[in-house]
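Quick review question:
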């Protein structure tokens, strides 16, 4: 993107935080980052929380609905290395742009899908050959090129779950319905997943 904008001379960094140790390293390195024109920091915690909530009973209790899920996320942020890192440079003049790559939605309604062994396993979208589904449950693209999507194989199609639906195979259907209902997922077609917030902040 910098090349396209003819800004190759800008000094930049890219940091991805995937655990607490990397977060602490970010805290210690914040003043060094200020020498760059642009710093990109990807913080993976909220996505990890979403997936962990699906698998861990204690997190299902702590974040049982959208309100408590946001509360847990806020509590994490207030005590996180990310918050510490930002506080270290509050006296410096810089612009901070906060965004995300996608949102998530709490899924409640199961939808049956039949596919072959090569069909992807995601609960909110699938691609594969010979997909069988109810048209009302999904947004479907028989021709992936029509939506600007890749074509993994001949006769490959894509489906995206609508609203609060999640896609389940008939095998062990009831088990997966009970396991994934009321979990937070992404990859489908809902406002919660697709509208991406972008916030620009400037310290005073």
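Suggested answer, residue by residue:
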């Amino acid at each position: 993107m910098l090349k396209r904008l003819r800004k190759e001379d800008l000094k930049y960094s890219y940091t991805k935080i995937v655990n607490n140790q990397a977060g602490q390293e970010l805290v210690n390195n914040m003043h060094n980052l200020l020498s760059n024109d642009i710093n990109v920091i990807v913080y993976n915690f909220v996505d990890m929380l979403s997936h962990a909530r699906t698998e861990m009973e204690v997190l299902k209790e702590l974040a049982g609905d959208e309100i408590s899920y946001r509360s847990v996320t806020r509590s994490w942020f207030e005590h996180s290395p990310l918050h510490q890192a930002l506080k270290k440079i509050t006296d410096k003049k810089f612009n901070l742009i906060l965004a995300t790559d996608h949102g998530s939605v709490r899924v409640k309604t199961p939808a049956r899908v039949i596919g072959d062994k090569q069909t992807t396993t995601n609960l909110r979208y699938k691609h594969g050959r010979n997909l069988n589904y109810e048209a009302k449950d999904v947004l479907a693209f028989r021709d992936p090129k029509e939506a600007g999507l890749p074509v993994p194989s001949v006769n490959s199609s894509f489906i995206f779950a609508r609203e609060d639906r999640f896609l389940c195979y008939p095998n062990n259907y009831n088990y997966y319905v009970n396991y994934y209902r009321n979990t937070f997922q992404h990859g489908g077609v809902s406002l919660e997943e697709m509208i991406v917030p972008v916030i620009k902040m400037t310290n005073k």
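Why it works: The helical segments are 20-33, 45-55, 57-62, 66-78, 81-88, 173-180, 191-194. The first helix runs from residue 20 to 33.
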